[in-house]
Design brief:
Blueprint: H1 4-60, H2 73-87, E1 91-92, E2 95-96, E3 101-108, E4 116-117, E5 128-138, E6 147-148, H3 150-155, E7 160-161, E8 163-172, E9 174-177, E10 185-188, H4 191-195, E11 196-197, E12 202-203, E13 205-206, E14 211-212, E15 215-217, E16 222-223, E17 226-227, E18 229-234, H5 241-250, E19 256-257, E20 261-265, E21 280-287, E22 297-312, E23 318-323, E24 327-328, E25 332-334, E26 341-347
Parallel strand pairs: 10-21, 24-26
Antiparallel strand pairs: 1-2, 3-4, 3-5, 5-8, 6-7, 8-26, 9-19, 9-25, 10-18, 11-12, 13-14, 15-23, 16-17, 18-20, 20-22, 21-22, 22-23
Helix pairs in contact: 1-2
């Protein structure tokens, strides 16, 4: 008589192993499909994000013109059109991108308030920056459709996934500038009432020439009740010609920021005027007030470019030139008021 119980006992582990192998194979296939899906979604997200970043940054350069602290509607529209065109220069998952949502408005870089504010926002406050937001989706009917999911197709779940990317780029105005950036002459804030068009945020135009008004900065030069400006030794009180010449040649030795006090030096030595490069564009600290006679500290309220066309010593002692607009400060922190200088476009989201 054959003992079959032993044979059954021997075969049971082999059958269990086959079942376990089948379960393991299904699990491995699931993990493999999941890895592929995650990779596909990550790739799509990355490509969409790059496209949104590039379109927003490129379009934000349109906000330079006129400073845009009070952008005319045409400038906002040009920026939006530029962003939409920028989207189409990119691909995601081998599909050329065609559409996206573009919004322009104000973005406060300090986060107060947070998020995009409308173009009609008033008043514009410290920290507000002209901004453009680009949102791109791969979704049904948009940009080649959503991402197809392998795991969902295998196991009967959601077969596609919508992917979204968003970017916000801003153009701001300096609140702080790096060393070797400014020229050691402080200009009076009231000069912007005299020679700056605050509606268009551009230099006022002299109708006799069709160019910006030319004016002089120095102790003897006043425009109405406004003292034009004075030499400064910036953060220190040092009335030596050698120190001032070093500032003319190299600029501020340390970072300068709005709110810092700088030393006013009326009637600086005649020899310094010979050191000034002409013509040149100089970034000047703007102060609330200067006096033609008082040596004192006064706080910085902003930074503005001045196009120097003459530097005259002797009995005159003045810098002659005109306001310049849309001057890009290479290294700066945004958030200041607009006096013609801009911080390079940057992504804030």
């Amino acid at each position: 008589m054959t003992d079959t119980s032993r044979e059954v006992t021997k075969r049971q582990p082999r059958g269990q192993a086959l079942v376990m192998m089948a379960v393991a194979l299904i699990a491995l296939m699931g993990f493999g499909a999941l890895a592929i899906d995650v990779g596909m979604m990550f790739l799509a997200k990355n490509e969409l994000q790059n496209a949104a970043d590039a379109a927003a940054l490129a379009a934000s350069q349109q906000l330079y013109y006129g400073g845009c602290t009070d952008c005319p509607q045409s400038r906002w529209t040009i920026t939006e059109d530029s962003a939409r065109a920028g989207i189409t220069y990119n691909k995601a998952m081998k599909s050329t991108l065609a559409t996206g949502t573009v919004t322009t408005g104000w973005w406060n870089i300090t986060g107060t308030p947070a998020g995009m504010q409308p173009k009609t926002k008033s008043p514009i406050v410290a920290g507000d920056a002209a901004a453009v937001r680009v949102v791109i989706q791969k979704s049904p009917g948009n940009n080649g459709g959503p991402v197809s999911l392998l795991m969902a197709a295998m196991f009967g779940g959601q077969r596609v996934q919508t992917i979204t990317a968003s970017a916000v780029a801003v153009v701001s105005f300096p609140s702080s500038v790096a060393p070797n950036t400014t020229f050691p002459t402080a200009i009076n804030n009231c000069m912007y009432d005299v020679f700056w068009d605050k509606t268009l945020n551009k230099p006022k135009i002299d109708p006799a020439t069709g160019n910006p008004y030319i004016f002089r900065i120095g102790s003897s030069y006043h425009y109405g009740t406004c003292d034009s400006g004075q030499w400064t030794t910036l953060l220190v009180d040092n009335n030596s010609a050698a120190y001032e010449k070093a500032l003319v040649q190299s600029g501020n030795p340390t970072q300068l920021s709005i709110g810092q006090n700088i030393w006013i030096q009326p009637g600086t030595e005649n020899s310094i005027y010979k050191e000034v490069p002409v013509p040149s564009v100089a970034l000047l600290p703007v102060v609330q007030d200067v006096s033609s006679s008082t040596h004192a500290y006064t706080p910085i309220v902003g930074f503005g470019p001045f196009h120097i066309i003459a530097s005259v010593g002797g009995s005159g002692r003045y810098l002659e030139g005109y306001f310049d607009g849309d001057y890009e400060v290479p290294i700066a922190v945004g958030g200041g008021p607009f006096f013609g200088a801009v911080v390079p476009p940057s992504l804030v989201q």
